[in-house]
């Protein structure tokens, strides 16, 4: 967007200064175009005309985005918030500073992303090329990037170890790229995106696909007639166990069979003698 003003003065310098005052900028911030050179009066009385100079400035996409963002912050009651513009080769970073600006980040940066999208539209409204705008508050972008990198590497290692896929929550394209880049650093792991629109998310898995993992049996071991437990229980020297159950008239399969002529066993607990029964 271009802003311009025409200044008039007795000299070119005076006309330039008048044009800058009307634009509200310093002389080194504007560009100038001389419309008319001053003409002196004949004999100091007749004719003559002042100089006319056009001064103009062209707002960069970053300046337009910063002005738009500042207006939004003022309407939110953040009159002390400042927008610092840091331009680079592909776009600009708008860093917001001030008190009580943290709420603009929103849940996992959703509000910040929405404002970034709107400021990007303003920056690219009149340009034929794409100008990238990044909005940051309190170095949130850097902290979020470190968190996502750590998460991506952790889930990638887990996928390689257990041979299972892991799905992450829906993310914007910028955050998905961070995850994909982090997964590439883990050998044997790969990642891809699934879903559409707001539900698009990253899936991390082992290279070559998931591996079958046999399910481990839980609970008690299955019953076996020939299990060592039953053999040890019924065929061991635990005589008190046998005496108690035979005294109650109960028998168990695979237990030692006692004949009617079997000797009597002395019950040391109560002093009684009990005859063994089949």
Report on this model:
The protein has 278 residues and is α+β, with helices and mostly antiparallel strands. It is built from seven helices and eleven strands. It has helices spanning 12-23, 61-75, 110-123, 140-162, 173-183, 228-235, 239-247, and strands at 2-9, 31-36, 51-58, 82-87, 91-97, 132-137, 166-167, 189-194, 201-206, 265-266, 273-274. A hairpin with a 3-residue loop joins strand 4 and strand 5. Mean pLDDT is 77; it is low at 252-278.
Give the proportion of residues in helices: 25-40%
SSE pattern: EHEEHEEHEHEHEEHHEE
Widest sheet: strand ordering: 1-3-2
Can you count the helices?
A: 7
**Spatial shape:** elongated
Biggest pleated sheet: 3 strands, antiparallel
Question: Which class of secondary structure composition applies to the elements?
Answer: alpha+beta
Distance between the termini: 108 Å
- Rg over CA atoms, rounded to whole Å, is 43 Å
Content of β-strand: 15-25%
Average residue-wise pLDDT: 77
Poorly predicted regions are 252-278
Number of E-type strands: 11
């Amino acid at each position: 967007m271009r802003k311009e003003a025409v200044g008039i003065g007795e000299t070119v310098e005076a006309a330039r200064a008048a044009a800058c005052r009307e634009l509200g900028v310093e002389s080194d911030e504007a560009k100038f175009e001389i419309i008319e050179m001053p003409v002196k009066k004949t004999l100091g009385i007749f004719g003559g005309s002042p100089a006319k100079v056009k001064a103009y400035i062209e707002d960069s996409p970053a300046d337009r985005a910063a002005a738009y963002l500042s207006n939004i912050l003022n309407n939110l009651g953040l009159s002390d918030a400042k927008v610092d513009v840091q331009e680079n080769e592909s776009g600009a970073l708008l860093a917001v500073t001030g008190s009580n600006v943290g709420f603009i980040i929103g849940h996992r940066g959703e509000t910040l992303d929405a404002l970034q999208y709107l400021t990007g539209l303003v920056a690219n409204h009149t340009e034929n090329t794409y100008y990238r705008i990044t909005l940051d508050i309190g170095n949130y972008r850097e902290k979020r990037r470190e968190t996502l990198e750590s998460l991506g590497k952790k889930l990638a290692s887990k996928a390689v170890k257990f041979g299972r896929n892991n799905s992450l929550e829906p993310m914007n394209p910028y955050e998905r790229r961070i995850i994909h880049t982090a997964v590439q650093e883990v050998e044997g792991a790969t990642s891809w995106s699934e879903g559409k629109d707001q539900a698009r998310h990253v899936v991390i898995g082992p290279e070559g696909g998931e591996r079958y993992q046999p399910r481990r049996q839980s609970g008690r071991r299955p019953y076996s007639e020939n299990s060592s437990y039953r053999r040890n229980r019924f065929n061991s020297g635990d005589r008190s166990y046998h005496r108690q159950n035979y005294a109650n008239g109960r028998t168990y399969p695979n237990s030692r069979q006692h004949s009617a002529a079997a000797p009597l066993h002395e019950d040391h607990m109560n002093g009684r003698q009990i005859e063994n029964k089949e």
